[in-house]
Amino acid sequence: MNQLAIIGPTASGKSDLAIEAALEHNAYILSIDSLAIYKEADIVSAKPSKEELALVPHFGIDEFYIDEHFSVDTFLKLYLDVKKKCEADRKNLIIVGGTSFYLKRLLEGLSPTPEISQEIAKKVQMMLRDLPQSYMYLQKKDSEYMKNIAPGDRYRIEKALLIFEASGKTPSEWFSLNPPKSVIQNLDIYEIDVERDVLRERIRKRTKKMLDAGLIDEVCYLEHKYTREPNPMKAIGIVETLEYLDGRLTKEELKEQIIIHTAQLAKRQQTFNKNQFEKKVSLKYETLQEKLASLPWD
Q: Where would I find the H helices in 109-249?
């Protein structure tokens, strides 16, 4: 089994390249997108269309409901399952998406997390409603671990709470007993190199397309079904739409806020990719398209 990764900022055309390469080289696709992994968040995550998904088997898309617990550790388990399926089906694998943190964890490893039940997940979400109190609670339990976590870092506070509540061990104890192990040793990583003004225009067009496709109705549905509590409900596109529904933004302001925040995300993604993947190959879209087409894969 051959495998590679395609990374790049949001709206840079990664999905199109991946589908084209997968069709050319007998491959499955594993998405690394922190929002597309959730069912029903279709428009806001800019998932490939149903027609595109039908062309090549995709994994990492529509795997969980928004109120179900998902973590990077869960993703690593998903990757191992997909790898086994590729080997059984004699398929290659293309990993693609904008959440490059998942890719970094595949390469460098991650300490496993304890099994998280729905009850524990719900309990932690309740605790997180008072973030300062949750932070103080963890500080008393594990001051050494918490000294590197900011009081407002909701993601890392949630992770620490989940570990403690599920295992009964402090994060420091848990990570000492469960050191990280690399999942992939060698992987070719290709990055789409895109000019900022070109990317900004692609983001603007995609945002308009999302609104025209029914983004507001989708977010209304998600809020009604799941409330605003689950972490995915704090994603770009959802937060701004909720502000619009609350009457704090006009429809034009909604569009502009999504564009601004998506462009800021794209910049963070580019910075992360630059600093975290030293051996990646960065190419313009057309050049990378040619490179992928000429892969010597069986």
A: 118-127, 131-141, 143-146, 154-167, 171-177, 196-213, 215-226, 238-245
Largest CA distance in the chain: 57
Residue 74 confidence (pLDDT) above 80: yes
Cβ-contact 230, 239 below 8 angstroms? no
Considering only CA atoms, which of 157, 168, 167 is closest in space to residue 127?
Answer: 157
Confidence of residue 155 (pLDDT cuts 50, 70, 90): confident
Q: How much is the pLDDT for 70?
A: 87
The residue type found at 266 is A
Give dist(CA 233, CA 138) in Å, integer.
25
Residue 112 has pLDDT above 80, yes or no: no
- Which CATH fold topology does 118-177 show? Histone, subunit A (1.10.20)
* Residue 234 CB neighbour total at 10 angstroms: 12
Q: pTM for this structure?
A: 0.83
CATH code 1.10.20 region(s) in the chain: 118-177
Distance CA 171, CA 164 (A): 6
